[in-house]
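Figure 2 data, in text form.
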Amino acid sequence: MTAPIGVLLVDDHALLRAGFRTILDSQPDIAVVGEASTGVEALAAASELRPDVICMDVQMPDMDGIEATRRLVADPEMQAAIAIITTFDRDDYLFSALDAGASGFLLKNAGPEDLVAAVRALAAGDGMLAPEVTRRVLTRFTTAQSEAPATAQPVELAEPFTERETEVLLLMAEALSNAEIGARLYIGEATVKTHVSRILQKLGARDRVQAVVLALRNGLA
């Protein structure tokens, strides 16, 4: 049997963690492996437990979720995908999270099914953005690229995208799933997965969300 997706919950509200745990532990393919209430605790717990996915709050004592995400992503031994889950629908949180390396962004008013879907998507390397913020991401990086942080590193492709890869990337930017991309382009889902893998490899991206951000910021899509 395949091991369940290990999830670390990071939030300074115990009641919220308990609610998330109840939702996630009810799924046969997901298991909450630990909890933390601060960013500092999250670093220690992630190092000890090696979760597959980390659900990270933003506003916490000692170290906020954005800084904790940045440190975790910078650790070459840390393979966990991180989803920022916050009450606050704020652009500064959204774009700081993406710049820090988060693979997902979800609001706490989302339904239980959205939380489960996000965990599964991140574990599969797909990334996940709340539908209400996807359009803002596209707008930010296509019409206001000059606002990107000065620290962002430009991407130089050793090999350019093929025409088909560019088509797939543009549809990824619309937050379409592999099945939806396949239907749009009249190709099989397995073929889409191959194109997505090559796009991630060429960009040096961890997942689909980071690939889209990198491509749009550098004018590659």
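Caption note: Residues 153-217 form a domain with the Arc Repressor Mutant, subunit A fold (CATH 1.10.10.10).
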